[in-house]
From TrEMBL:
This is SDR family oxidoreductase. The keyword Oxidoreductase applies. Keywords: Oxidoreductase. InterPro entries: KR_dom, NAD(P)-bd_dom_sf, SDR_fam. Belongs to the short-chain dehydrogenases/reductases (SDR) family. Pfam families: adh_short. Residues 9-187 form the Ketoreductase domain. It comes from Nocardiopsis eucommiae. The keyword Oxidoreductase applies. SUPFAM superfamilies: NAD(P)-binding Rossmann-fold domains. GO terms for molecular function: oxidoreductase activity. The lineage of its organism: Bacteria, Bacillati, Actinomycetota, Actinomycetes, Streptosporangiales. It comes from the Bacteria.
Length: 251
């Protein structure tokens, strides 16, 4: 069912070419919203968009503040406002512990997952504070790793703990401007990034065991529900995960 006219929103999704970003974009387009699909590869963004009405494809690199400013400049020119940002772009990086991580890999993960999220949140917040009516919603893609690390995942784990700090700061600094922020922590949604978990996931005790996964549509459904809420409702954090995945201590 499409969104009612007064429920229509302009939504920016980064990393919309695959995985959670793709599924969420398609769900929100199906709900009748206008969705700006952002990412580095136009071909994958266009695959996500298909012929769906309301889809706008914009090539952007979240690690570049100039590229992100241009992205939101396009949003402003096309729609005049932004109602929701889903900060979804991210990379896992190599499997490495603190004594193994290389400089380039560390920078890539932190630049994409943390600086990229900050760049997009900054531009979205500026628009949301200036537009009439003001306000909006920012949703940050966290992870179970924002709470408990996987073995040999120092860069990714640090980046997702930083997302928790970013989310908390956004909620504090922006709540007086009608802007609500959510961190969605996802555990084992079945995407290309988690392909190996269903067969051979490294555990905290050094063993390798399969882990359960969930269909990514359940994550998209959760985000769609948050998007549908009025702005006087805040959802600071939400976790969506496979019921039987090892969480506490990673098993």
């Amino acid at each position: 069912m499409g969104a009612a006219v007064n429920d229509h929103k302009v939504i920016v999704i980064t990393g919309a070419g695959a995985g959670i970003g793709r599924e969420t974009a398609r769900r929100l387009l199906g709900d009748g919203h206008s969705v700006v699909l952002a990412g580095r590869r136009r071909e994958t963004l266009e695959e996500t968009a298909g012929e769906r009405p309301g889809a706008v494809v914009v090539e952007a690199d979240v690690t570049s503040s100039e590229s992100v400013a241009a992205l939101f400049g396009t949003v402003r020119e096309r729609f005049g406002r932004v109602d929701v940002l889903f900060n979804n772009a991210g990379v896992f990086g190599p499997a490495a512990s603190v004594d193994e991580i290389e400089d380039d890999a560390w920078r890539e993960v932190l630049d994409t997952n943390v600086t990229g999220s900050l760049n997009c949140a900054r531009e979205a917040a500026r628009m949301m504070k200036e537009q009439t009516p003001g306000g909006g919603r920012i949703i940050n893609n966290g992870s179970i790793s924002a709470h408990v690390p996987r073995p040999s995942s120092v860069a990714y784990t640090v980046s997702k703990h930083a997302i928790s700090g970013l989310t908390a700061s956004l909620n504090l600094d922006l709540r007086g401007h009608g802007i609500a922020c959510t961190q969605i922590d996802v555990g084992n949604a079945a995407t290309a990034m988690t392909t190996g978990f269903g067969a051979n996931a490294l555990q905290a005790d050094g063993s390798v065991r399969p882990e359960p996964t969930i269909d990514v549509t359940h994550v998209a459904d959760t985000i769609a529900h948050i998007v549908s809420l009025p702005l006087d409702v805040s959802v600071p954090t939400v976790t969506v995960m496979a019921r039987e995945m090892p969480l506490a201590g990673r098993g």
